[in-house]
Amino acid sequence: MPEVRAAVLETIGAQYVRSPAVADALFSLTGSGDFTTRLNAALGLVLRKDPRTAEAVARLGPTPPGYEDDHRLHAIWRWEREREQDRV
């Protein structure tokens, strides 16, 4: 069930556990067919400052309707802006 997986992932992803196994699990879910699962996984990698974050964010794809004001997307967009500023 994608909804259950996304809910569990939201809880685990928001935790600041620095375990490589958790980061690997999060990254493995960035290929999910469910946008919410990919979103939670990408956010979990952002929070952990994982080197695979850029790839995870790229895997999000287009934002579906209804997510425009989602706090998770805002955190990812903030990460993208900071990353761009660091390049300048």
End-to-end separation: 43 Å
The low-confidence parts are none
Helix-strand sequence = HHHHH
Radius of gyration: 12 Å
Q: Approximately how much helix is present in the residues?
A: 55-70%
Secondary structure class reads mainly alpha
The largest sheet, given as strand count, sense and whether it forms a barrel, is: none
Which geometry do the CA atoms define?
A: globular
Multimeric state? single chain
Description:
By secondary structure, this protein is an all-alpha fold. Helix content is about 65%, strand content about 0%. The chain has five helices and no strands. The protein has helices at about 1-15, 20-30, 35-50, 55-60, 70-85. Helix 1 packs parallel to helix 3 (about 35-50). It is globular and about 40 Å long. The model has no long low-confidence stretch (mean pLDDT about 90).
Q: How would you sum up this structure in a few lines?
A:
The protein is mostly helical and 88 residues long. It has helices spanning 2-14, 20-28, 35-48, 53-58, 71-87.
